[in-house]
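[agent] plan:
  1. take the single chain provided in the ticket
  2. run structure prediction with default settings
  3. attach structure tokens to the ticket
  4. add a short note for the reviewer (M.T.)
[agent] executing step 1
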Amino acid sequence: MTEPMVVVEALTRTFRTGDLEVPALRGASFTVGAGELVAIKGRSGSGKTTLLNLIGGLETPDGGTVRVNGGDVGTLSEDELLALRRDHIGYVFQSHGLIPVLSAAENVEIPLRLVRTPPAERDERVRVLLGLVGLADHAAQRPYELSGGQRQRVAIARALANRPRLLLADEPTGQLDSETAAAIMPLLRAVVSSEGVTVIVATHDEALLAEADRVLNLEDGVTTETPVPTPG
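[agent] step 2 finished; step 3 output follows
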């Protein structure tokens, strides 16, 4: 039996400010199979971002374990965590995070330059990815020349540059209007199909959940399986 891409077991995380303790996770547990598109829903402040950060090795849990692609994230050294994030995990945030002075193509190729991908291979990968997200004709435009939805598509293409096994998307439609936002989840579905990547997307937008294979509800620090909503 193939091991799941992500295994989360009894994950806990509490934030402390002086004498005040705010539990974010109280024993969250779930698995995500390879090639799945899983949505995590919950109200703002429910801990979705914290959960994604723990899966991606950006934060350290107080208790429990996270396994990604068979490896225990909690046992990795700083160098190993860096390699995991660079080579195996892609990130998409609601704020896009694009570099304003660079074109769409140049933003997408940044991860490829970091790993010294040969120029011809780099150019072809950028071309393929911009085509995948529907921006082949916008390669030379800078972020300020693109709409919010187009900037998010560039961010998705950039996250896929190094062929990650896992894509983590944190409220990727949070700054988009409803019509533009509705196009992002089908795009992530296309990414699962064409790139063979596993996707975990955090959102509280009910309209975006219908594209997911599974939906997990995060409430009071624990996750529970919930039915995928019917479109309409």
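[agent] step 4 note for reviewer: The chain has two domains: 1-88+165-232, 98-163.
[agent] ticket updated
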